[in-house]
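Case study 2.
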Amino acid sequence: MKLTIAVQMEYEVQPGDPALLAIMVAPAPGQAVIDDELLVEDAVLRWIAAEGDSGARVWATPGADRLRLRYDATVAITRRDAPLDALAMTPWPALPADVLGLLRPSRYCPSDQFEDFVAQQFGTLEGGAKIRAMADWITRNIAYVPGSSHGGTTAIETCATRQGVCRDFAHVMCTLTRAAGFPARYTTGYAPQVSPPDFHAVAEIWLGDGWHIVDPTGMASAATLAIIATGRDAADTAFMETALWARPVAQSVRVTGDE
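Prediction:
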C-alpha cells in the first residue's frame, strides 16, 4: 500500500522555546519513505539522527510566538498482517538485548499490577492466541471516546473508566501483554482509516522472532500503518515536546491509501 500523508500544525508558543518534533515517518522494516518534506516557518532546525525503528527527530526553535509547520510524505508499506494465532511466545533467554527492557512496567503501563488479572482472564491460552484474546477483550470492554482521557491517563485509569482513545488502547494492550511475559512497545504512526483523522498509536508485541503490530481500536494494521516512533509508552513518543507552555491553534492530519 502507498500512503500519502499531509500534516499541518500551528501552535502558540513562547518565542525561543525549542520544540522537539517526532512526526517524520521512520525508515523501519516493512516501510519505505518514497519522499518527504518538513517545512517550519521562521524557525531554526537542528536534526537528531533516527534511533532504532524511530524516525529522525528535529529541534525547531521558533523566532516568534507561533510555530507553523507542514509535513508531507509518500510511504510504501510492504509488510503484511501475520496470523497471530500461529506465532509462539519467545523464551526470555532468546530475546534480543534491546527487547528485554520492554518486558518491564513503565509510567503509563504498570504491568506488574495486572499480573493476577491476566493469569485469571487469559491463563489457559498460549502464544499469539493469548495476544489475540487480549486485543479482543480491549475492543469489547473499552469504548473509543474522543476527549475521554488526558496526557496523564494510565492503563489503570482506562480500565477503570472503560473508555479512552488510541493512546489508551495501546497502553492497555502493552500493559496486559507485558503482564503475561511478552515484550511490548508503544508505537505511533499514520494510517488512512483513523477516525477522527489524527496521529495514531498502536502496540507492537514481540512474537516468534520479531515485532507484530496489534491495534485494539481496529483502525490500523501492519499493512496500513506508517510508523513514526516506538518506545515504552507515550512518554517516549510525543509528536511535540516543549519546556514551556504551547497552545494548539490549528492541526490537521490527512492520510490516504492507494493499493
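The chain has two domains: 2-78+239-258, 84-233.
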